[in-house]
């Protein structure tokens, strides 16, 4: 696997390169600002781009905008966005163009090397990994007429794990239930969100988008 990293902090950038190398993942290029990212991706054609949200020159959302541009120019390009703080809008904006191959993690997660490398591999393979703290804050905002309000506590928990990119088997293992129980909960989620069987595998992505994007 080959990655491109966009991160203005030299210390974190070099740390990421070392962590990835130890896991057998090659860093094809590194850049220190958002505008340089699309060019690096076009030149090196990596399997994944790892991007800091806030970078020069304004330290607002340069990284996010660069990530969105990369996805526009390279449909399906896996993107992992790293942020210092929980910023719900950024997660929603990123996943709004399609949940496959998208990740949004707090930088502190890098400290858990095994979890971080697992997230990198899952995103590169087309999975969706959204930080648990972001999911928790989004879940806490749900009120009143929200369609998600019809979900049971267990269905909300299952949907949250789906948003993190876990498979049915992984969800079952996390919740210590059977695969059949997870499938039943997911069927209930689809039904309550009005996602019809004819929509196929896209129902899972649409459920995650509803979870992350509804306000």
From TrEMBL:
**Annotated protein name in UniProt:** Response regulator transcription factor
Keywords, sorted A to Z: DNA-binding, Phosphoprotein, Transcription, Transcription regulation
According to the UniProt record, list the residues that bear 4-aspartylphosphate: 52
Recorded coiled-coil stretches: none
Q: Which Gene3D superfamilies match?
A: 3.40.50.2300
Q: Which Pfam families match?
A: GerE, Response_reg
| Presence of keyword DNA-binding | yes
- State the source organism's domain of life: Bacteria
SUPFAM superfamilies in the cross-refs: C-terminal effector domain of the bipartite response regulators (SSF46894), CheY-like (SSF52172)
Segment forming the signal sequence: none
């Amino acid at each position: 696997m080959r990655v491109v990293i966009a991160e203005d902090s030299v210390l974190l950038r070099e740390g990421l390169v070392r962590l990835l190398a130890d896991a057998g993942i090659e860093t094809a290029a590194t850049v220190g600002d958002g505008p340089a990212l699309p060019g690096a991706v076009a030149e090196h054609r990596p399997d994944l781009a790892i991007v800091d949200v806030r970078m020069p020159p304004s330290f607002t959302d340069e990284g996010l905008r660069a990530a969105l541009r990369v996805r526009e120019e390279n449909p399906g390009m896996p993107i992992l966005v790293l942020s210092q703080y929980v910023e719900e809008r950024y997660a929603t904006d990123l996943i709004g163009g399609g949940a496959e191959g998208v990740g949004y993690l707090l930088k502190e997660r890098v400290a858990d090397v095994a979890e971080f490398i697992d997230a990198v591999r899952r995103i590169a393979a087309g999975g969706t990994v959204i930080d648990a703290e972001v999911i928790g804050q989004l879940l806490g905002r749900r009120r009143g007429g929200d369609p998600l309000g019809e979900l049971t506590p267990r269905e909300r928990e299952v949907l949250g794990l789906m948003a993190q990119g876990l498979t049915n088997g992984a969800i079952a293992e996390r919740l210590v239930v059977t695969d059949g129980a997870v499938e039943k909960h997911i069927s209930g989620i689809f039904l309550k969100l009005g996602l019809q069987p004819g929509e196929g595998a896209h129902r899972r992505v649409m459920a995650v988008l509803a979870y992350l994007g509804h306000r």
